Amino acid sequence: MDHKIPIARGGKSNKSNCVPACKACNTHKGHRLGIELEMDKLAGTVSSTSAESCNEDGNDIK
């Protein structure tokens, strides 16, 4: 489970702030907000990942 707004940045563990994510993607996102990750992708500093590609790679969403 991933927090849209990380707990380290004031996010809560509630239904509206949590989304399914595999361990690899959740770890990759770290304490960044989704918009910050998107900005990194635009700058070419990280690769694009999604739940669909994680499932194709055999990662379990937890």
Mean pLDDT: 78
Q: What is the count of structural domains?
A: 1
Largest sheet: 2 strands, antiparallel
- Which strands sit side by side, in order, in the main sheet? 1-2
Cα end-to-end separation: 5 Å
What share of residues are in beta strands? 5-15%
Strand tally:
2
Give the ordered list of helices and strands: EEHHH
Shape: globular
Derived structural class: mainly alpha
Q: Work out the helicity level.
A: 25-40%
Give me a quick take on this structure:
The protein is mainly alpha-helical and 62 residues long. 37% of the residues lie in helices and 6% in strands.
Question: How would you describe the overall organization of this protein?
Answer:
By secondary structure, the chain is mainly alpha-helical. The protein has one domain. It contains three helices and two strands; from the N terminus they run E-E-H-H-H. It has a two-stranded antiparallel sheet with strand order 1-2. Helices cover 37% and strands 6% of the residues.
